[in-house]
Amino acid sequence: MSAVLVDLDGTLVDSAPDIAAAVNAMLADLGAPALPLATIVGFIGNGLPTLVQRVLAASAITARQDGVALFERHYTATNGRLSRVFPGVREGLAMLCAAGHRLACVTNKPHHATAALLAQTGLAPWFAAVVSGDTTPWLKPHPAPLLHACTLLHTDALHAVLVGDSHVDVAAARAAGMPVYLVRYGYPGAGSLQGATFIDALTELPALLAPQNVIGTSVPHSAPS
Predict the structure, then answer these.
(1) Are residues 98 and 199 in the same domain?
(2) Residue 67 phi, psi dihedral angles, 5° rounding
(3) What is the DSSP pairing of strand 129-131 with strand 102-106?
(4) CA max distance for the chain
(5) Model's pTM, two decimal places?
(6) Which entry of 7, 14, 18, 165 is annotated as an active-site residue?
């Protein structure tokens, strides 16, 4: 494999505490009680508008046009403050680079928040490309972000894998025609994880991607329904 595409929230960084702090600050502005961390974690993965929509619905608040803006204001202040890089991530990224793989971060988080979090955690230098939630017109699980990352890395889906933590990543990888590896510690959400290979840490991946261990498992490109 020449390209390794890596999800951000729940895969590289435990960002749920920052997201939860912003969610509950938004709810306080709206006069609603805070939601538990576990509830908010279940809303992560499908992009910012969906997160806000789910939070408002769970709090019995009528959908608001300014909901995303309210959340973003608070998240700008909390982003990176409580986040922690998962164990093995820095070592795994170094091992992947040493093995000759080119890396891209592919996330549904907006660009400004992605850039800030990668910079604050010190992970930015590892990635030759970053595809955020507003880089293409589509979010994962649509294959477009993954295929765009391959273009930026001058490769194609046949020579790439995705590393993620959720059913969104599984669906995106299948639609893009590439294998997917899921970390066991992330935010899987409610959806099918069938077809993924599970790993406990990013440090396991270089050995799994060694030429003698790679089996062609691509599937036809198709957008998920």
Answers:
(1) yes
(2) -60, -45
(3) parallel
(4) 58
(5) 0.90
(6) 7
Same domain assignment for residues 169 and 191:
yes
Q: In what order do the strands lie in the sheet with 197-199?
A: 129-131, 102-106, 3-6, 160-164, 180-183, 197-199
Cα–Cα distance between 127 and 39 in angstroms, integer? 31
Residue 206, in any domain of the structure: yes
Distances (CA, A) of 135 to 14, 32, 114, 115, 168: 22, 33, 11, 12, 17
The count of structural domains within the chain is 2
Domain that holds residue 149: 3-14+84-213
pLDDT digits (tens, 9 = 90+) for 147-180: 999 999 999 999 999 999 999 999 999 999 999 9
Q: Among this protein's residues, is 66 annotated catalytic?
A: no
pLDDT in tens, 82-137: 999 999 999 999 999 999 999 999 999 999 999 999 999 999 999 999 999 999 99
* CATH, residue 136: 3.40.50.1000
pLDDT, tens digit, for every residue of 42-71? 999 889 999 999 999 999 999 888 999 999
> Are 190 and 176 part of one and the same domain?
yes
